[in-house]
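Lab channel / #folding
Pinned by the channel admin:
"Please post every new chain as: sequence first, then the structure tokens as a reply. Keep commentary short and put observations after the output so the thread stays searchable."

First post following the new format, from NK:
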Amino acid sequence: MKKLITIFLPLILGGIVGFLTNTDIYSEYTNPPLSPPGIVFPIVWSVLYLLMGISYEISSKNKEIKFFYYLQLIFNYLWTFIFFTFKLKFLAIIWIIILVILVIYMIKAFYKDNKLSAYLQIPYLIWLLFATYLTIGIYILN
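Reply from TO:
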């Protein structure tokens, strides 16, 4: 049971954040080229949150891994409020860049411990880089 909680915790918390946030404003913005339709985001984030949980579950959960894992999760969840609720687009750019850096450090910590844990985070990093592009594009266009 504890393993399931560890695996599904990021997804559950992400769902709560999504429920508490009005993401409908995404469709109101002028979006940059390559912007996916809004329905894509909950699907992609669900997969990424599950991969995060799996990575954490199969790691040794040493202090470095715990630190970067939970810190990046906090930054991840707070970005949603900064961008969608408070509409602080410039701060959201800075925030997501910090998040990307935290995820890189998290991946390095996972890699030292369990290479599979690190590899499972590569889609997350790629998606965050794409999300950074979208955030900057929305800031510029709006």
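NK: Residues 2-141 form a domain with the Ferritin fold (CATH 1.20.1260.100).
TO: also worth noting, Residues 89-113 form the longest helix (25 residues).
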